[in-house]
Amino acid sequence: MKRMSIVEALREGIRAEMRRDERVFCIGEDIAIPGGWGGAFTVTLGLEKDFPDRMLNTPIAEAASFGVACGAAMMGMHPIADVQYSDFLMCAFDQVANNIAKLRYMSGGKLKMPLTMRAPVGVTGRGSQHAQNMETFFMPLPGIKLVCPATAYDALGLLRSAVRCEDPVMIFEHKLLYGSKGARQESGTVDASSEIPDEDYTVPFGKGIVRREGRDVTVIAALLMMHRSLQAAGALAKEGISVEVIDPRSLVPFDWNIVRTSLAKTGRVVIVEESPKRGGIGAEMGATIAEDMAGLLRAPIKRVAAPNTPAPFSPPMEKFYVPQVERIIEGIRETMKYGKGHHG
Amino acid sequence: MPDIGTAVEQITVLKWLKQEGQPVKRGEPLCEIQTDKAAMELESVAQGVLLKQVVAENTEVTVGDVIAYVGEYGESVPQ
Amino acid sequence: MAEKKYSNEFLLGLYRKMVLIRHFEERVKFLFLEGIMPGTIHQCQGQEATAVGLCAALNDDDVITSTHRPHGHCIAKGLPVNDMMAELFGKTTGCCKGKGGSMHMGDISRGIVPAIAIVGGGIPVATGCALAFKMRKERRVAVCFMGDGATNEGVFHESLTMGAIWKLPVIYAIENNLYGASTPVKMVNMVKHLSEKANTYAMPGLTIDGNDPLAVYEAAKTAVGSAREGEGPSLLELVTYRITGHSRRDPALYQPAEEKKAAKANEPIGRFAKYLLAEKAAEQSELDRIAGEVDAEIEEAVKLAMAAPLPKPEDALEDLFVEGV
Q1: What tens digit of pLDDT does each residue of A240-280 get?
Q2: How many whole angstroms separate alpha carbon A254 and alpha carbon C168?
Q3: CA A303/CA A286 separation, integer angstroms
Q4: Where are the domains of chain A?
Q5: How far is A268 from A299, CA to CA, in rounded Å?
Q6: Which residue of C has its CA nearest to B66?
Q7: What is the pLDDT of residues C167-208, one digit of tens each?
Q8: Rounded distance, CA A101 to CA A96, Å?
Q9: Among chain A residues, CA nearest to C103
Q10: Who among B2, B6, B37 is closest to C33 (CB)?
């Protein structure tokens, strides 16, 4: 057992996967420049020493980067392609949406696309073009699995599942959960470190996890919002409100069973996301809950999300934009106005 | 009358280039037509014998209308 | 007597393939006009020599990427017309089980990535296939077929940069048919020859008569040879002409009549037939026999395709992931 931050877990995970399987390689900008940063958030720092031929530093060319990874994957390699900020996925989006997501299907299932993609999300005072939470743009893309690890344990487990499987997987990592050290340290970082077992383990796709058990309301939240929801739950416990926090970990496929089980208990749901509310991942979750689990609800579905604007720079506006613990608490209180007591 | 990509769907059959009873190869000019853009030859999509000219010369038809029956010698055609 | 450079077998093989492409496209054109084929088609009549000449320089395990106009590339690389005809009819026996259609024709087991219909979208993909070959130290090459229009896509620049800096075994083959959809190539390019764009990447760039299959073959052999030897990519500009519309409903009124007429006189199959007869590589009766065999092969493909089953509607839910749904 060893305690690791997300960045350490990912680094060791990528190192181990590359040792284990010659087909695995990394491709991205600034990922392995000697004397460099190991990517924008130090995830791949130093890996070029162990794998001089399998850490490909690209020109600033996201579209070709992802297209090259797509072609290499179809020929049997297992590439890990990353962008420095998830916003830059827009530059690669034709390759992602039209090739990576669709080629296996268009071939009638005759080819495989064993490609892992990684991108950092989250608002961090850099302005709105380095702030996007891109989950919303990937959820509607059939053909790509989508995961959001909020802890080091999950980051390593999901990375392994992603690299080893034969389908395209997008891993969204949060800038404030990495735990990068030194020059790349982020202000406002939340501790997402975990005890990492020595033995090889994976986290399966499509399995969420209950981070905190409760009886009064279900909160579904991923990445940074999961951590903030836990804080909100802790504060509300003092008032006798019992909050269950579900970390979905996978957005595609999504663990609807864990939500159903929880709603059967609580009858109330709050979905928290860092993206604008309109068409966000909360929209998909909310619609599915309303469609398939309406009978379990005793309060309207509540979404706590960013407003429908780009992310602003100035700190007071940023605090208004990204759901803070207080706003999550408010959202939970609103649902608590409906229905007396609890089901279970 | 096949959809040959005209903007306007009304096309005039000007003149038959094959007579009833004559063999027609796929791709051979079957008749002259007038579209909104130009006069041109219409290639036959079917192969065999021209059994019946359904429309008279200088008749306007719409894309999709039957203008001729091409089949095997001796085949009966709808009246 | 001087030794012949090419065997009759090789020459007639090229001829046969070009005739197969032309007759396939013509047959499919009429199936559409008959109204019995679903979807749309982008045909390549007039462009047969580019695909055939280039693929003649490839091995079975080399890989090609193609475009929204893929039929000629697929036939040249060895995709059976039975599989293609069935795919055009949307049948389960099609090369993509009816999931792809005309614009996604292909079969990875034959070294044909399902065609990528986004202009330029296949350029990095071919580059990536070449990357895999180089990383695994295989002597295979990737060929990227693209049109003149694709050379203006940003991803063209990005991909050729990567192909060049990493010395990947990839051949970038531009089929310049003088029009990007309806836009003349001279309207949207400053360079006289598209092959000049190779200078930006310090890679060999050649402009070739794309209607001469032997000229294409020779250029391809050189490019493929240097790629296999680890010398990196090449850019080949194959100048040709599309003697059919952009897509099935395009009367191509933007092509001046004089230009179209000249192009029809310069089309590759007629020219190659003249060459074969002049070189005494074949007699007219042999060429006619080949055409007859090709037509029979295509009719058989039509027959089989029409008799084959359509997919069940729910089949739409399959073939998304290797694992899970």
Answers
A1: 999 999 999 999 999 999 999 999 999 999 999 999 999 99
A2: 39
A3: 8
A4: 2-196, 209-336
A5: 5
A6: C34
A7: 999 999 999 999 998 899 999 999 999 999 999 999 999 999
A8: 6
A9: A106
A10: B2
Q: With an 8 Å Cβ cutoff, is A110 touching chain C?
A: yes
**DSSP state at residue C52:** H
Q: If you search the block for the tokens 């190779």, which residue do you land on?
A: C198
Is C310 part of a structural domain of the chain?
Answer: no
Question: What is this structure's pTM?
Answer: 0.94
Nearest to A130 by CA among A95, A96, A90, A92: A90
The answer on pLDDT for C228 being more than 80 is yes
Structure tokens at A176: 């404030």
**8 Å CB contact of A72 and C165:** no
Q: Strand order of the sheet with strand B59-62?
A: B39-43, B29-34, B10-16, B59-62
| Contact yes or no for C155/C105 (Cβ under 8 A) | no
pLDDT surpasses 60 at C2:
no
With residue C27 as reference, give the H or E element that holds it. Answer: helix C8-33
Place of tokens 């999504």: A254
Task: State whether residue A229 sits within 8 Å of chain C by CB.
Answer: no
Q: Is residue C164 scored above 80 in pLDDT? A: yes
Asked whether the beta carbons of A36 and A173 are under 8 A apart, the reply is no
A2-196 and A209-336 agree in CATH topology: yes
Q: Which of C261, C195, C203, C282 shows the shortest CA–CA distance to C16?
A: C282
| Cβ neighbours for C304, distance < 8 A, ≥ 6 positions apart | C82, C85, C86, C93
Q: Say which of C34, C248, C253 has its CB closest to residue B45.
A: C34
| Six-digit token string for C118 | 């986004």
Place B7 in a pLDDT band, splitting at 50, 70 and 90: confident
Query: What is the torsion angle, in degrees rounded to the nearest 10, for the CA atoms of residue A281, residue A283, residue A285 and residue A291?
Result: -160
Q: How many CB pairs under 8 A join B and C?
A: 27
Both tokens assigned to A251: 């957005």
How many structural domains does chain C have?
1
CATH number for the domain that contains residue C43: 3.40.50.970
Average pLDDT over residues C78-98: 98
Contact A172/A147 with Cβ under 8 angstroms? Answer: yes
- When CB atoms are compared, the residue of C109, C131, C162 closest to A110 is C109
Tokens of A309: 């604007």
Candidates A78, A130, A174, A227; catalytic one: A130
Instruction: Tell the CATH topology of A209-336.
Output: Rossmann fold (3.40.50)
Verify whether residue A130 is a known catalytic residue: yes
C64 neighbors C125 (Cβ within 8 angstroms): no
Which chains contact C through at least 3 pairs of Cβ atoms less than 8 Å apart?
A, B
User: Chain A neighbours among C 200-219 (CB < 8 Å)?
Assistant: none
Please provide the distance, in angstroms rounded to a whole number, between the alpha carbons at the two ends of chain B.
18
- Give the mean model confidence (pLDDT) for residues B22-26: 93
Predicted local confidence at residue A181, as pLDDT: 78
- Predicted confidence band of residue C254 (pLDDT cuts 50, 70, 90): confident
Please give the distance of CA A58 from its chain centroid, rounded to a whole number.
Answer: 24
Q: Which residues of C88-102 are buried (b: 16+ CB within 10 A; e: fewer)?
A: bbbbbbbbbbbbbbb
For residue C321, the chain A residues in CB contact (below 8 A) are 104, 143, 145, 167
Domain that includes residue C59, residue range: 8-244+260-303
Q: How high is the pLDDT of residue A114?
A: 98
Contact (CB, 8 A) for C205 and C234: yes
Q: Is the N-terminal amide bond of A253 cis, ω within 30° of 0?
A: yes
Which CATH code for domain A2-196?
3.40.50.970
With a cut of 50, list the residues of chain A below it in pLDDT. 344
Chain B contact present for C257, CB below 8 A: no
pLDDT for A341: 60
